[in-house]
Amino acid sequence: MSAVALNLSVVIPVWHEQERINDLIGQLRDQDAASEIIVVDGDRAASTLAVIGDPDVLRLTAVKGRGSQLAAGVAAATGDTILLLHADSRLPDQGLSLVGKAVVQGAAWGAFRLGIEAGGLHFRLIERGVDLRCRIFSLPYGDQGIFVRRSVLHQVGGIPPLPIMEDVALARRLHRSCGPCRLLAARLRTSARRWRRDGPGRRTLKNWWLLLRYLAGADPVELAREYR
């Protein structure tokens, strides 16, 4: 089952992703030329939108913050299934078809397994830790390419318009409403830039610390100031 038959919308929030966006759009077109692609720029100057070469991409601006940008993209989407995709991620081969197959088989929502674009045992251990988190807590993050039926997304109240942790809030809503995440076998590849900048251990611990504080009731606006 192809993503064309599924009527898929891909929503991509961006912030200064001029160097990456056209490669990602090209990969999506190679996998399914007919999928609806929506890019939502948090930069008022629309710097990323300005470099997009594909005339069929829907280009929007929104208040900076993944939650508000994703919410704006979803509001404009026409697909029966929505794929939320970060600009620094790359789908596995036949990734859109894998989403389509999962939905046709009955998945209300799901995500890819995480793959980090870097060599080294520490990165492989991080990937296995994410696999475990998803299987035990049904808690994928946005860098895993969360997909969801549009009707289900509407049912749970849409994308939480948070500046950070919107993916956690969404996954928890979906789990409560629809049951566990369908974790696909294939790995989506995401950039290692933050792990390399901060160090794998330090970045992982910081992510966990922010998550724990959010779950304990910390203000997402304050958490967003600490996340870079």
Question: Would you kindly provide a brief summary of this structure?
Answer:
With 228 residues, the chain is an alpha/beta fold. It has helices at residues 3-6, 21-31, 66-76, 95-104, 121-137, 150-155, 166-178, 193-198, 200-215, 220-226; strands at 8-14, 36-41, 58-61, 81-84, 89-90, 109-116, 146-149, 182-190. Helices cover 44% and strands 19% of the residues.
What does this structure look like?
With about 230 residues, the protein is an alpha/beta fold. It has helices at about 5, 20-30, 65-75, 95-105, 120-135, 150-155, 165-180, 195-200, 200-215, 220-225, and strands at about 10-15, 35-40, 60, 80-85, 90, 110-115, 145-150, 180-190. An eight-stranded mixed β-sheet has the order 3-2-1-4-7-6-8-5, with helices on both faces. It is globular.
Radius of gyration: 16 Å
As a percent range, the share of strand residues is 15-25%
Domains counted in the coordinates: how many? 1
Distance separating the two termini: 39 Å
Number of helical regions: 10
Beta-strand segment tally? 8
Encode the helix/strand succession as letters. Answer: HEHEEHEEHEHEHHEHHH
CATH C-level class: Alpha Beta
* CATH second-level architecture: Alpha-Beta Complex
Major pleated sheet: 8 strands, mixed
